[in-house]
Amino acid sequence: MSTPNFVGLSAVILHRPDEGVDRLARQLRLLGLNVERHWSPLGQDEPCDIVLVDADQGWNGLLPWNPGEARVPVVALLGSEAPGRIAWAIEQGAGAIIPKPVTAASIYPALVLAMHVFAERRATGEKLAELAARLRLRGVVLHAVETIARAFEIDEEAAYRRLRQSAMRRRITLEQAAVELLAGGHRLPEVG
Predict the structure, then answer these.
(1) What is the DSSP letter of 76?
(2) How many helices (H) and strands (E) in the chain?
(3) For the chain, N or C: smaller number of CB within 10 Å?
(4) How far apart are alpha carbons 38 and 12 in whole angstroms?
(5) 48-89, pLDDT tens digit by residue?
(6) What is the SS3 assignment for 167?
């Protein structure tokens, strides 16, 4: 992973005004971020690339997404060791924590970590969705294999190989090949 460049990105700090938040905003601007600050719920369409949120006093509804569905990287600002506050930060999608009182040296590493964790979570979610879709199509693949086996009077293992070879030749997934075959959009794989 390369280190992210924050120049031109926008950050929203959800925290009551205080000296630590002033220091945080100043450091974020030095890193090239555009910074907005307020202590009210983040708007559903409020543009931002990263959110820094007070996990000590945050509440459900402060961020416009359901637990586990963060739309942007989240950094928790946390001065407490209370397990409930840490759990709340995690539920909101925090990928990093900046301890309070905020120090300049803690900001950049937390931003990098939050961006990395967010990217990994997103990639994992996409992969899981892809695997779930493929799993849902397993019955279609089985039906296509049975169709090929009957048409060519071969066993299911040989029919599966033909379907797989057809998919590989056309550079599509096995599931796509099965769907096309059953929908009549592609002929049965050639003999041999």
Answers:
(1) E
(2) 6, 5
(3) C
(4) 8
(5) 999 999 999 999 999 999 988 999 999 999 999 999 999 999
(6) helix
